[in-house]
Write a sequence for this structure.
C-alpha cells in the first residue's frame, strides 16, 4: 500500500491534498448546530446531480411530451417516482440548507475579513442556484411551470428599450414555448450544474486558504503550538467527518421522511396547479413561485405607486439627513446626489420597474455584507444589543415576506409586505450604524 | 446560545403571527367541503372505485397516463376480470387508459373537452371531488338539465344519476356548522348546500356517499400509484436511519472523547 501511494504521490499530490484539506486541515473545535449546513449543501448537490442523471434518462424536453414523460417516470419507470421525489424534495432541501448556511455566516460574522471572498463566491453560488431552480421548475411543463416562467421572464420587459428584445431572446419565442423548454433544459442539466460545481470548488479553496470561522468569531491561527498547529484546532478528518456523519443521518431522516410521507408538502413542495399540463390559454388563479423564491417575490409585489411615494419621501429625508452626519464634505455631497437621483428616479419610472429593481437589489445587497458590518467583533455572542435586535427583526421580516409571497395579495398583505420590505432593506442600509452602536462584550482569546 | 434560542423561538412563532389575518380571509371565501376518509390500503374500496370509474367516467374522461395492467397489478384484479370488465374490447393490458371519445367530438357535444382524470385528485383535492360528485341537482335553466352547487354551470351532466337519483336545490346552510340546521328525512346536505331528494336511485343516500368515497379513494390512488409503496418503504428507511443514527452518534462520541 505504501509503495503504491509513493508511486502515486510522485505523479499526483494525493497525500498532500488529503492532508491539507482533511487530515491536517485544522478546524475550530467548537462548531455547533449551525455548522452542519456547509457539508449538507454539498451532499444535496450530489443528490441532485445523481437523481438528475436518472431523471434525464427518461425525461423528454419537448413541449408535447414533457408532462407525460414526468408521469411516465412516476408510474412506469422502476423507482422513477423515488428519483423524482428525491429531486423535487432535494430542491427545497437545498434552499433550506443554503438559507441556514447563509444565516450562520451572518450571525457569526463569517463574511468578515479575511473571509470576504468565501462570502462573495457563496453569494454567486446562491444566485446560480436560484437560476438552476427556476429553470428546473419549467421542465415538468405543468401549468404553474409555464406561467411561473412566463411571469418571471417578462420581468425583464421593464428594462428600458432593451427589455422586449431581451425577453424574446431569453424565451426564443414570443411566449414561453418548446424553444424555451429546450434551452432551459440545456441550462438546467449542463450549463448551470457545471458552473455550480466550479463555484463550490472555488468556495472551498477560498475557505481552506483562510480557515473556518467559528461561533466565537476569533481566529484559531492566533494561538499555535510549536509545530504550527492551532491550539484550538482539530483535524477535519476524522473529527468533523464523524460529526458531520451524524448530521447527515439526521438530515436524511427529515429529508427522506418528506420524500416518503409528504412529497408534495401539501402543495408547497409540489404545487397543485403543476399537476395540470401547461396551458397557454388558462392562467392559474394565483401564480406563485415555489417557497424559496417567495421572500423576493413579495418584495417584487410590494412595489405599488403609493409605496414609491413613501420611498421617495424616505430617500428625500435621507438626502437631507446626510448633512447632519459627521463626515467629510465630499462624502456628504456624493451621498446627497445619490439620494436625490434616487428620489427623482422613483418618481419617473413606474412601480413595476422599481419592483424588479428592488427584487434584484434584495439579492445584490447580500454581496455587500462584509463591508456593511462595522462591528468590532464578529460573533453574535459578543455583539451589542442593537445588532441582536436587528437580526431578530430581519428574520421576522424575511420569513414574513416568504409567507406573504405564497399567498394571493390583499390590501392588508400588501401593506405587510411593504413594511417587511422596508425592514429588509433597512437591515442592510442601517447596518454600518447599528453594528457600531452599543457596547460589545469582551472577546476571549481562546475558544470557549 | 441564549440569543440563538430566542431567534429560533421567533422563527417558530412567526408564521402564526403573520398568518392570523389570512386564515380569516380563507374561510371568508366560503367554499365548504365535506371530509372524506382516504385509505390507499383499502383494496376492496379501490376495486369498487375502479369499477365505478371505468363504468361511469372513462367513456368521456381519459386517464391517459395510467396503464390498465398497473391497475390489475396494484388492486389485485385478475387479468381475465381486467379484460372483461375494465377494458374496452380493442385495448391491450399494457395500453394507456385513454377515452374512446375524440377531443373534437367532446368539444362539439359538451362545449369543452372533459379533462383527463389521472391527476385530478392532485390538481383539486379529495374533499373537493367528494363534495362535487354528490352536489349535482336538477336545474331547468341548464342546457343538459343538471347543475352543480360546488362547480356552478359545469358542462358535465349528472352521470351518476342512476345511482344517486335526483335532487333539487333548497338553499345554503346559514351557519358554519351544518349540524345547527334541522333537515327532514328527504333532505340531504352536501358541503353547505341543502338538497331536497326528488327521486332515489339504485343507491340509498348512505350507499351513494360510500360509493363516492370509493371513487374518490380510487382517484387518489390513480393520481399517485406510488403511494402504495412509498409509505411502506419509508417506514423501513426511517427505521434503518434510526439504527444508523445510534451507530454514527456512538462513533462520533468515541472519536471526540479526546477533545475538550
Amino acid at each position: 500500500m505504501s509503495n503504491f501511494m509513493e508511486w502515486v504521490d510522485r505523479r499526483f499530490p494525493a497525500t498532500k491534498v488529503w492532508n491539507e484539506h482533511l487530515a491536517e486541515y485544522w478546524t475550530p473545535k467548537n462548531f455547533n448546530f449551525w455548522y452542519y449546513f456547509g457539508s449538507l449543501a454539498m451532499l444535496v448537490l450530489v443528490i441532485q446531480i445523481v437523481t438528475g442523471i436518472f431523471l434525464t434518462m427518461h425525461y423528454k424536453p419537448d413541449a408535447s411530451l414533457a408532462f407525460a414523460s414526468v408521469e411516465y417516470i412516476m408510474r412506469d419507470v422502476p423507482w422513477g417516482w423515488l428519483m423524482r421525489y428525491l429531486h423535487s424534495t432535494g430542491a427545497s432541501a437545498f434552499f433550506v440548507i443554503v438559507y441556514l448556511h447563509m444565516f450562520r455566516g451572518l450571525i457569526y460574522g463569517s463574511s468578515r475579513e479575511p473571509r470576504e471572498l468565501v462570502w462573495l463566491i457563496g453569494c454567486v453560488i446562491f444566485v446560480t442556484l436560484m437560476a438552476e431552480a427556476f429553470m428546473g421548475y419549467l421542465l415538468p411543463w405543468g401549468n404553474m411551470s409555464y406561467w411561473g416562467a412566463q411571469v418571471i421572464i417578462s420581468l425583464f420587459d421593464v428594462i428600458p428599450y432593451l427589455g422586449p428584445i431581451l425577453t424574446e431572446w431569453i424565451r426564443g419565442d414570443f411566449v414561453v414555448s418548446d424553444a424555451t423548454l429546450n434551452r432551459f433544459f440545456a441550462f438546467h442539466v449542463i450549463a448551470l450544474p457545471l458552473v455550480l460545481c466550479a463555484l463550490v470548488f472555488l468556495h472551498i479553496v477560498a475557505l481552506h486558504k483562510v480557515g473556518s470561522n467559528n461561533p466565537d468569531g476569533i481566529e484559531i491561527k492566533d494561538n499555535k503550538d510549536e509545530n504550527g498547529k492551532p491550539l484550538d484546532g482539530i483535524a477535519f478528518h476524522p473529527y468533523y467527518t464523524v460529526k458531520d456523519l451524524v448530521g447527515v443521518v439526521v438530515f436524511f431522516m427529515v429529508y427522506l421522511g418528506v420524500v416518503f410521507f409528504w412529497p408534495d408538502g401539501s402543495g408547497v413542495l409540489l404545487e397543485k396547479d403543476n399537476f395540470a399540463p401547461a396551458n397557454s390559454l388558462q392562467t392559474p388563479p394565483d401564480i406563485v413561485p415555489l417557497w424559496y423564491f417567495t421572500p423576493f417575490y413579495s418584495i417584487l409585489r410590494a412595489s405599488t405607486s403609493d409605496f414609491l411615494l413613501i420611498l421617495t419621501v424616505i430617500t428625500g429625508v435621507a438626502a437631507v439627513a446626510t448633512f447632519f452626519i459627521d463626515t467629510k464634505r465630499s462624502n456628504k455631497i456624493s451621498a446627497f446626489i445619490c439620494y436625490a437621483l434616487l428620489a427623482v428616479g422613483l418618481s419617473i419610472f413606474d412601480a413595476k420597474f422599481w419592483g424588479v429593481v428592488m427584487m434584484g437589489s434584495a439579492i445584490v445587497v447580500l454581496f455587500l455584507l462584509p463591508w456593511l458590518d462595522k462591528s468590532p467583533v464578529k460573533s453574535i455572542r459578543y455583539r451589542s444589543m442593537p445588532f441582536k435586535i436587528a437580526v431578530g427583526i430581519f428574520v421576522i421580516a424575511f420569513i414574513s415576506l416568504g409567507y406573504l409571497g405564497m399567498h394571493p395579495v390583499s390590501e392588508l398583505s400588501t401593506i405587510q409586505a411593504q413594511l417587511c420590505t422596508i425592514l429588509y432593506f433597512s437591515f442592510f442600509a442601517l447596518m454600518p450604524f447599528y453594528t457600531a452602536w452599543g457596547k460589545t462584550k469582551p472577546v476571549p482569546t481562546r475558544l470557549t | 446560545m441564549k440569543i440563538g434560542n430566542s431567534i429560533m423561538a421567533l422563527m417558530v412563532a412567526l408564521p402564526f403571527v403573520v398568518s392570523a389575518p389570512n386564515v380569516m380571509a380563507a374561510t371568508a371565501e366560503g367554499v365548504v367541503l365535506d371530509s372524506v376518509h382516504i385509505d390507499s390500503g383499502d383494496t376492496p374500496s379501490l376495486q369498487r372505485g375502479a369499477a365505478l370509474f371505468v363504468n361511469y367516467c372513462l367513456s368521456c374522461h381519459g386517464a391517459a397516463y395510467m396503464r390498465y395492467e398497473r391497475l390489475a397489478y396494484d388492486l389485485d384484479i385478475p387479468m381475465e376480470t381486467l379484460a372483461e370488465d375494465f377494458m374496452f374490447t380493442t385495448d391491450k393490458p399494457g395500453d394507456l387508459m385513454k377515452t374512446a371519445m375524440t377531443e373534437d367530438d367532446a368539444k362539439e357535444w359538451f362545449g369543452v373537452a372533459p379533462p383527463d382524470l389521472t391527476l385530478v385528485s392532485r390538481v383539486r383535492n379529495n374533499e373537493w371531488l367528494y363534495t362535487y360528485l354528490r352536489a349535482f341537482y336538477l336545474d331547468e335553466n341548464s342546457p343538459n338539465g343538471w347543475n352543480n352547487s360546488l362547480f356552478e354551470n359545469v358542462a358535465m351532466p349528472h352521470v351518476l344519476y342512476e345511482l344517486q337519483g335526483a335532487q333539487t336545490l333548497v338553499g345554503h346552510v346559514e351557519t358554519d356548522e351544518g349540524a345547527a340546521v334541522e333537515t327532514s328525512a328527504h333532505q340531504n346536505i352536501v358541503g353547505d348546500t341543502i338538497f331536497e331528494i326528488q327521486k332515489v336511485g339504485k343507491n340509498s343516500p348512505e350507499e351513494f356517499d360510500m360509493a363516492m368515497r370509493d371513487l374518490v379513494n380510487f382517484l387518489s390512488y390513480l393520481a399517485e400509484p406510488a403511494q402504495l409503496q412509498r409509505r411502506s418503504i419509508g417506514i423501513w428507511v426511517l427505521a434503518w436511519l434510526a439504527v444508523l443514527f445510534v451507530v454514527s452518534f456512538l462513533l462520533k462520541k468515541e472519536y471526540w472523547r479526546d477533545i475538550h
User: Anything to note?
Assistant: Chain A has two domains: 21-275, 291-434. Chain A touches chain B through 54 residues (CB under 8 Å).
